[in-house]
Amino acid sequence: MKRSFTIMVTGLMVVLLMALFSAAASGAGNVSVAVVNIDKVINESLAGQGANRVLLQLIKEKQDELNKVADNINTLQKEIETQDTPEKQQQLTQLVNEYQQKVDEANSQI
Questions:
Q1: How many CB atoms lie under 10 A from the CB of residue 85?
Q2: Residue 65 counted as domain residue
Q3: 36 phi-psi bin (left φ>0, alpha ψ -120 to 50, beta other)
Q4: Coil, helix or strand at residue 108
Q5: How far apart are CA 85 and CA 82, in angstroms?
Q6: How far apart are CA 57 and CA 53, in angstroms?
Q7: Residue from 61, 77, 71, 70 nearest 100 by CA
């Protein structure tokens, strides 16, 4: 019983493969391949240049925003070196979490 099932499945697979190969062979004359140079499209088309400018502006804005938070973190770390209090540690933790959220947000938007 198991052997006949295996033979039947094998036969079905052979028939399907033959049909697939014959269909591919008959349509082989209509196959064409195209290659698009995305860099060239972005750099030479008006739409690509505009989209690139918008993307670069978004990246600059996000980087400036992240730099401000990083500066706040550095300032707070220097303050903690001179006077380490639980409040300052909590502030630092919050700033680091905020920074990580902004990085994740920026990465998802870009």
A1: 10
A2: yes
A3: beta
A4: helix
A5: 10
A6: 6
A7: 70
Q: Which residue has the tokens 């505009």?
A: 50
pLDDT one-digit tens code per residue, 42-74: 888 898 889 889 999 999 999 999 999 999 999
DSSP-assigned letter for residue 46: H
In a domain? residue 59: yes
Instruction: List, for residues 8-31, the tens digit of each pLDDT value.
Output: 667 767 776 776 666 665 655 666
Q: 92 in a domain, yes or no?
A: yes
Which residue range(s) make up the domain with 97? Answer: 29-109
Whether 22 is covered by a domain: the verdict is no
The answer to whether 17 and 10 have CB atoms below 8 angstroms apart is no
pTM: 0.57
Count up the domains in the chain and report the number. Answer: 1
